[in-house]
Design a protein that fits this description.
The protein is mainly α. The chain is 71% helix and 0% strand. The longest helix has 32 residues, at 5-36.
């Protein structure tokens, strides 16, 4: 079908607006990346925009020689992997049960869950509960309190409710239990929705700094985002070299390193890993969201 002149003009304006919006949103990240690869003293002169003017890796040398940062990085990696796997497993299992129309008091359970989406006990009661459970200053304080997401459970439940009843009926005839049906039939055909919810959960775990700031005081358990916030709120030179003679030697030897360049390098180390996960899950992302939200 041929487009009219007005439609072509409108389409051109839409594409141009999207391109401009994309550039506006992407440029701050790109500029931070460029500054992280540029000499700090040269960056202070201004004019470093889309390409490093004085390329250097010294900023990253200091960052990767900071033992606290590397430890926090692996804490975040373990938290993201373990937290995502457990959260998706428990949430999907709950959603599968809630998708059964013959479940007694099903509507009351849903009301109970939905209420928790809009109302919470508050920070102080939550803090007291976590402390009384003995989760303070433990790795599991970043996993257990947020193990179930009601929002994700509703998406899972909508998807499971749309599955043909014949799948389960034929499996039951073959002697399969409810757990067998879930793990052998439901999970294998739920790849798109699992990948989508897994991505949402992983991003939430990786970007969360608040949990570490409130419930963790041990440096060896701090996730990278919480440590980055502490560094940004203090003298980054002092923080990066505190108790680290190798990093201090690099800073003293190379005077081109500045607070801004070091901060940008640290931000990139904390940001890029989660960004790199998107291309691998992109093919599932849109399909999973549409299936989980429209069908039912």
């Amino acid at each position: 079908m041929r487009l009219s002149t007005g439609d072509k003009v409108f389409q051109t304006l839409i594409y141009a607006s999207l391109i401009i919006l994309g550039i506006v949103m992407f440029y701050p990240f790109w500029n931070s990346l460029v500054i992280s690869f540029n000499e700090g003293r040269d960056t202070a002169l201004g004019g470093v925009t889309i390409w490093p003017r004085a390329f250097t890796l010294e900023n990253y040398n200091v960052v990767f020689k900071d033992t606290r940062l590397l430890n926090s990085f692996w804490i975040s990696v373990m938290r993201t992997v373990i937290g995502t796997i457990l959260s998706v497993f428990v949430t999907s299992l709950l959603a599968y049960g809630m998708s059964k129309r013959d479940l007694q008091l099903r509507n009351y359970y849903m009301i109970f869950f939905i209420v928790t989406m809009f109302f919470s006990g508050g920070l102080i009661p939550t803090f007291l509960l976590v402390r009384n459970l003995g989760l303070m200053n433990t790795f599991w304080v970043m996993i257990i309190p947020g193990l179930i997401s009601v929002y994700h459970m509703i998406i899972f439940r909508t998807f499971f409710s749309a599955l043909p009843d014949g799948l389960e009926e034929s499996a039951k005839i073959d002697g399969c239990s409810n757990y067998g049906i879930f793990f052998r039939i439901v999970v294998p055909i739920s790849g798109p929705i699992i990948a989508t919810i897994g991505l949402f959960t992983a991003v939430g775990h990786w970007n969360d700094w608040f949990t570490g700031a409130i419930y963790i005081s041990k440096d060896e358990l701090l996730p990278i985002q919480t440590l980055l916030r502490q560094i940004m709120n203090s003298n980054i030179m002092t923080e990066m070299s505190s108790g680290n003679a190798i990093a201090m030697e690099h800073i003293n030897r190379n005077r081109s390193i500045t607070t801004k360049s070091l901060l940008m390098a640290t931000m990139m180390v904390a940001t890029i890993p989660i960004i790199l996960t998107y291309p691998f899950l992109q093919k599932y992302f849109v399909k999973g969201v549409l299936i989980g939200s429209i069908k039912g």
